[in-house]
Amino acid sequence: MSASSLPALPAAPLRVVFFGTPDLASTVLEALLGRDDHVVGVFTRPDAAKGRGMTMVAPPTKRLATARDIPVAQPRGWKDGSALETFREMKPDLAVVAAYGRLLPQAALDLPRFGCINVHASLLPRWRGADPISRAILAGDDETGITIMQMVLEMDAGAILHQSRLPITSQDTGGELEKKLALEGGQTLCEALDLWREGRLEAREQVLSEVTTAPLVQKSDGRINWSSPAADIERATRALDPWPCATTTREGALLKIWRAAVEDSSAAATGTVLAVDKTGPLIATGTGALRLLDVQAAGKKRMKAADWARGARLEAGQALGT
């Protein structure tokens, strides 16, 4: 693993262009706007139709930039050259990217005189890719963090400039951990820029033998396999909250599992209801049992699993996943 010192940034405020889209990116942008550097433009994904009415909704980063009178660009791609020209007209000294949702071409990476840096929600080289937060919980990691890295054409493969660590608790959901990492991301970015200005930042190449990947979570990833260990299923209920959520079926009807707990159990066919009491139904799994605590039946609101079981007349010996 090699490291090289970076020449110090100038003391004068930089012209920074920010690339980002969801709430996590908006939180990082908020931190950047608290500095003396000038955010002269924001690139984000196009507005998207959401909800039953398919109303067009602007990304959180666009809403923040618009409120601060910062020019916003929402290109659908970079192939026709117009996005690159817009980027060039902003005359960036530095580009900061956080959950933009689109790869930048080499011509864009080469444009700012101090390059492009990325705020990534993992401890690279672990969890390169689009869903590092969910993947870290699913894998049972006990910590995650933020990596500030130099961007290259290959996804998340650039040299590491600065990192901070954050524990993953046994109660963290994907949504809750993302909020923590968003705040951590803004703070870690500001620390990295301060170190860079002081000439104390180093670029450290990633150790290739330690690389793991974090592919985008799909809706099908939420489907519970009751033959899996109870601990794995419990982590899935947290990692996939708020989307796509861990799901099973009962007599063909969808049931979302929002919260659960692992318990010991005697052997039984996986997916079988072992008991139903005031704390919720207990379900046999491949290893141990899972106590359902919060669930959501199709067309219903989220509720205590014990209340759902009582209303659904769930009894020991019945099965889920059917």
What attributes characterize this protein structure?
seven-stranded mixed beta sheet, alpha/beta, six-stranded antiparallel beta sheet, elongated, 322 residues
Write the layout of secondary structure elements.
Layout: E1 3-5, E2 15-20, H1 23-33, E3 38-43, E4 48-50, E5 55-57, H2 60-67, E6 72-73, H3 82-89, E7 94-98, H4 106-109, E8 116-120, E9 128-129, H5 132-138, E10 143-150, E11 160-167, H6 174-197, E12 202-204, E13 213-214, H7 230-239, E14 246-250, E15 253-263, E16 273-277, E17 280-284, E18 289-297, E19 303-304, H8 305-312
Parallel strand pairs: 2-3, 2-7, 3-6, 7-8, 9-13
Antiparallel strand pairs: 1-12, 4-5, 8-10, 10-11, 14-15, 15-18, 16-17, 17-18, 18-19
Tell me what you see in this structure.
With 322 residues, the protein is α/β, with parallel strands linked by helices. Helix content is 25%, strand content 29%. The strands form five sheets. Strands 6-3-2-7-8-10-11 form a seven-stranded mixed beta sheet. Strands 14, 15, 16, 17, 18 and 19 form a six-stranded antiparallel beta sheet that branches. A two-stranded antiparallel ribbon has the order 1-12. A hairpin with a 5-residue loop joins strand 18 and strand 19. The longest helix is centred in the middle third of the chain and has 24 residues. The chain is elongated and about 70 Å long. The chain starts with a strand and ends in a 10-residue tail after the last helix. 39% of the residues are buried.
